[in-house]
Amino acid sequence: MDMIAVKNVELPLPLMHRGKVRDVFAVGSDKLLIVATDRVSAYDVVMDDPIPGKGIVLTQLSAFWLEKTQHLVPNHLLSVRFEDFPPELALYRSMLDGRTMLVRRTEPIRFECVVRGYLAGSAWREYTEHGCVAGVPLPAGLRHAEQLPEPIFTPATKAERGHDENITFDALALHIGTERAELLRSLSLTLYRFGHDYAIERGLIVADTKFEFGYRPDGQLLLIDEVLTPDSSRYWLAESYRPGEPQYEFDKQILRNWLDEHQWNRQPPPPQLDAELIELLRRRYFELFERLTA
Q: In whole angstroms, what is the distance from residue 255 CA to residue 244 CA?
């Protein structure tokens, strides 16, 4: 399947932010246009090689989950239809269509709301060293990738540069207030359980994920950014799931594993990704989308 990769986006709109994957543009004073490119990052470094079509999967999955969860918490999505975008973007349709969201503008809460249902990634490393994750004590003897007795909320700083860092709930409450921190924890756990249950019915496991929230000028709290995508979540195939063993993965862990095998020092410049890896990542992203959305 031939697909042109979109790596960088230039539009006749004010550029608000260029992240590792998304380019964000202002639409008036109260809306944003979020474009998911095909850039891919690992260990906080953007690879030189994009994954064709990846941004389309991220946008369409986010829109899918935002629609599915709007009964749980309101969100910022206005439209993914190109016809609803500003008319001055008409010449950019081939680049934007399918990978772009028009959203309400909010003041983001500068913390990531991470929920973990299984022991993997940085949580596994922290558990093996300390027996807890972000201050949450866990039972002894858990294996890598094992399901936790209950999902846990492990907030993290949202770094503009460098690495995000896990923090305790008490540290989050100190920064944003106890009442607000408790609300974010409750909403995040509810969203994770909903997503996990939905995915399980379709043969997938959401091992962990992160959510982001923002406030509108009137004080309304909204779910923002990407939701339950393979960039923000760890997805495994349920039928082959075995604690303590490697999992069939659909997310960026595939890229991280490849980079580790090639002994990259995690500093720029990144190594060139081979064609087989790019195709594997592309296929897994689209396979995940098809499984979730049928």
A: 20
